[in-house]
Amino acid sequence: MSISSRCSTISARAHRERRSRTWTSCFPPDGPGGLMDHDAPALPRDLVERWGITGSVLLADTRTSHVYRVQRQDAPPAIVKLLKPQGQHERPGMDFLAWRAGAGAVHLIDQEGDTCLLEDAGTTDLRTWRLEHGEAAANGVIAGVISLLQSASTASPPCGLLPLRRHFRALFQQAERQPVSELQQSLRWAAKTADELLNTQNAVRPLHGDLHHENIICGKARGWLAIDPQGLIGDPAYEAANIFGNPDGAFPDIIDPVRITSLAKLLAPAIGTSPEKIFGYAIAHAGLSLSWSLEDGRPLSEGSDGFERFAFLKLARKLTDEGTFSS
């Protein structure tokens, strides 16, 4: 089955039927340069041979995956992402990359089950680049990447993408569970905003679904590219939502009303919608992100993601009451 036609669905059966495989290091224990991290799982022998891998370095060991930069025989360096059992929800992201075929995002070069070979986009993420070049320049990059991600595709949308309403399930649940408090009021307002937007979605299409500064990478000939998509399907206005709560470590900017309004006005044309709708999805996503923190039992202490999302919601409510985005 070709990559472009592969549809993955996340189900209990799919979780059970993971293909067994023989694992091996790319090299003998004392292989060239110690490139293989011996604490990480080795790459599958058949894929090492199939992809011509001659060396690898572990870049990341997250809750959901291991990520390697690999050297290849007679081919440019690439990235190998190997999903863990906890990372099955990332399979739709692979389908999204296949559908984009390199337009605005890294190429999915090949895939075998839970392991994919990806284009190496480079080593500079937008969060780091922003520190040197500034907010305005970084926002221009974001608008450009979003425009590319919104460009048309001749391929049919993948069948395994997560519908946007299901993506927001945690927000609707937490809005009902929380006791009466300012937190509950904020969550219910965000849930009401999300529900209204989800009931009036326009031009529904596949979405990256997790676009933020650390998921936009540069350093190679193709310029800025998106990585690590969630693989959602829904209103394209949601694509900009996560930008408002990022980058990490920029809390004063995140709660700056001038930044919020300028971001909405800048990113709306890239998507072909109104600043008001962009702002609405930013509110909805802040509530969703806060709900994830609550689900995971993470404290809302100062400096935490939950604390920052809660602060954004309170400011967004004030801007809404003031009619900042009223038509």
Automatic annotation (TrEMBL):
Pfam families linked to this entry: APH_6_hur
InterPro entries: Kinase-like_dom_sf, NH2Glyco/OHUrea_AB-resist_kin
Entry's Gene Ontology BP terms: secondary metabolic process
Top-level division of the source organism's lineage: Bacteria
Amino acid composition bias (Polar residues), ranges on this chain: 1-11
Region (Disordered): 1-35
Gene Ontology molecular function: phosphotransferase activity, alcohol group as acceptor
Cross-referenced SUPFAM superfamilies: Protein kinase-like (PK-like)
Protein name: Streptomycin resistance protein
Originating species: Rhizobium deserti
UniProt lineage: Bacteria, Pseudomonadati, Pseudomonadota, Alphaproteobacteria, Hyphomicrobiales
